[in-house]
Design goal:
The protein is of the alpha+beta class and 211 residues long. The chain folds into two domains: 77 residues, OB fold (Dihydrolipoamide Acetyltransferase, E2P); 126 residues, Up-down Bundle (de novo design (two linked rop proteins)), CATH 1.20.1440.120. It has seven helices and five strands, in the order E-E-E-H-E-E-H-H-H-H-H-H. A five-stranded mixed β-barrel has the order 1-2-3-5-4. Strand 2 and strand 3 form a beta hairpin. Helix 2 packs antiparallel against helix 7. The longest helix is centred in the last third of the chain and has 18 residues.
Length: 211
C-alpha cells in the first residue's frame, strides 16, 4: 500500500466490530474508495467525529488498488453544520452522497463530479434546499457520467440551461417544468441504480414528493 494525501467527501459509514468503521469516500484524486478507520468509534481523538456523510476532509490514506484502503488520519475538515439544521437540506445532502455512491465505479477519478457534489454541499450550507437544487444536481451528475437523457421536450429547457452553468440557484423552473423534469430524471436514475436509495425515501418523506 502507498501512503497518499487527498481530498475526500464522506459518502457513508458502516460500523464494524466494536470500535471500527468502514468509510465510503469520494476523493478528488482517486474517485470512490472504501477505507477502514480503526478505532473510529472508540476514540474521538483520532478522527474527532468528522467521519459523517457530507463532510469534506483532507486526509492521509494507505491506498490499496483492490479492497479496503486504510484511513490513517484526518488533517482538516469542512463539516457543514448548517446541513443538519433543516430536515429537507439534510435529506438532499444525504441523497446527493448516496447517489454518487450508487452510480460511480470504485477507483475511478471523476473530478468534475467531485466538484459538483462539493458545490451542492456548500450551497446547501448557505440555505434551505429546493426541488430545483435537486434537479440541477441530478441532470449534471447524469451528464458527467454519460447517462444524460434526451431533453427535446419544451418543458425540459430549464434542464438544458442547468448544463450551461455550474452555479446552483440561477435556473428557475415553473411548476409544470419541475414536474416534467422530475418524471424524466426519476426514471433515468432508477434505470441506472440497482437498489432503492434509502436517502431518496427520506427526502420524499420530508418534502412530500413521491414518484
Amino acid at each position: 500500500m502507498k501512503t497518499e494525501h487527498c481530498q475526500a467527501i464522506v459518502l457513508s459509514t458502516l460500523d464494524y466490530g466494536e470500535s471500527d468503521r468502514i468509510v465510503s469516500l469520494f476523493s478528488l484524486e482517486f474517485g470512490r474508495i472504501r477505507a477502514f478507520a480503526k478505532g473510529a468509534r472508540a476514540s474521538r481523538r483520532r478522527f474527532g467525529g468528522m467521519l459523517e456523510p457530507g463532510n469534506r476532509l483532507e486526509l492521509t490514506l494507505q491506498v490499496k488498488d483492490e479492497g479496503l484502503s486504510r484511513l490513517e488520519r484526518v488533517e482538516a475538515a469542512r463539516c457543514h453544520p448548517g446541513l443538519r439544521g433543516n430536515l429537507e437540506t439534510l435529506a438532499l445532502a444525504l441523497y446527493g452522497c448516496e447517489l454518487v455512491e450508487a452510480l460511480t465505479p470504485e477507483g475511478h477519478p471523476l473530478p468534475r463530479l467531485y466538484r459538483l457534489l462539493a458545490t451542492l454541499l456548500d450551497h446547501l450550507e448557505r440555505g434551505a434546499a429546493t426541488e430545483a437544487d435537486q434537479r440541477f444536481f441530478e441532470i449534471n451528475l447524469l451528464n458527467i457520467l454519460g447517462y444524460r437523457p434526451p431533453l427535446e421536450d419544451d418543458d425540459l429547457h430549464p434542464l438544458r440551461n442547468c448544463l450551461r452553468t455550474g452555479t446552483f440557484g440561477l435556473i428557475s423552473f415553473s411548476g409544470q417544468e419541475l414536474a416534467a423534469s422530475g418524471r424524466l430524471l426519476d426514471r433515468s436514475i432508477s434505470n441506472h441504480t440497482t437498489r432503492p436509495l434509502q436517502s431518496l425515501s427520506f427526502l420524499q418523506d420530508v418534502t412530500g414528493r413521491r414518484i
